[in-house]
Amino acid sequence: MGLKCGIVGLPNVGKSTLFNCLTSAKALAANYPFATKDPNVGVITVPDQRLDQLAELVKPQKTIPTTVEILDIAGLIKGASKGEGLGNQFLGNIREVDAIIHVVRCFEDDNVVHVDGSVNPVRDKEIIDTELIFKDLETVEKRLEKLQKHAKTGDKEVLAMFDELTRVKGEMENGKPVRAIDVDKVLDEQLKEMMLLTDKPIMYVCNVDEESVLTGNEHTKAFEAAVSGEGAMVLKISAAIEADVTDLEDPDERMEFLSEIGLSEPGVNHVINKSYELLNLITYFTAGEKEVRAWTIVEGTKAPGAAGVIHSDFEKGFIRAEVIGYEDFVRYGSEQAVKEAGKHRVEGKDYVVKDGDVMHFRFNV
Length: 365
Prior knowledge:
Layout: E1 4-8, H1 15-22, E2 40-45, H2 49-58, E3 62-64, E4 67-72, H3 87-95, E5 99-105, H4 121-151, H5 156-173, H6 188-194, E6 202-207, H7 218-226, E7 233-237, H8 239-247, H9 251-261, H10 267-278, E8 281-287, E9 291-298, H11 303-310, H12 312-316, E10 318-324, H13 326-332, H14 335-340, E11 345-347, E12 358-363
Parallel strand pairs: 1-4, 1-5, 3-9, 5-6, 6-7
Antiparallel strand pairs: 2-4, 8-9, 10-11, 10-12
């Protein structure tokens, strides 16, 4: 798919520790700023009980889950938009990702230094927002100059775009990220072209201490109130707990450890699944004796496009798709039983694939 999330935040908030727990990579996690200079790249396996259930029924030779690519991006400080610290590198890396996982520190620990001297997740978020907004304003100003030249022709559509972008610029100058601004449809194409940093979908991860992982604390409450107008996802996890869980190789020991804390599954599972949702992705399956496999597509993809994820020839020579709903497959227990029950469907080129579809493609090249 090529879609990826980037983990961002100030130095020493737990980004690299979270990254290590999410992936099989082992990023340097250290108690000093800029432990991460170049973005670490990892591949996350997306946990999906549906895949496990299908594998139990089909008993294939192998089972292959779907994945999401993730980047652990260097910590950002005040002045990054002007090149301070690793600012230019950070901003270049974040421009490459499709969605943002913003980690904020919501725990007190005198042994872990904070780059600004105290724990305040609302302030920390505003620092990063401000730097990203400054960079976005440079892009917006360049676009306004271009629109202003075209507006001299009297083109009403260009004039409308200029006026709307000028209004958006004013809200940005007041500290609002683009994703929190109601923007008229007249700017849709312009915004896509500009690829603004503060227009990317975002999820906030509050890194808390073990005692706060279930109920939160004063820091998480203040933070949730501060971002309530953005409509963004906010998750609470303890990177320290997740690191301990990751160190346990035995699945039963992991579950016992989590149960003692009051958790039913690792917090990183929530982060992974919400990242998938953030990227507007869904999963369809193929199921046969050789393999049961999960495939990633963007929600709204039609059958030929879904087939193309497997191989470009499948899309070029697409004839039809044979489709079984996941619930029907589980209910009847096999492809043959589904067919006998009349729940097997044949769909054409205009079929929009649904999350959980079990599919088989017919093609000719």
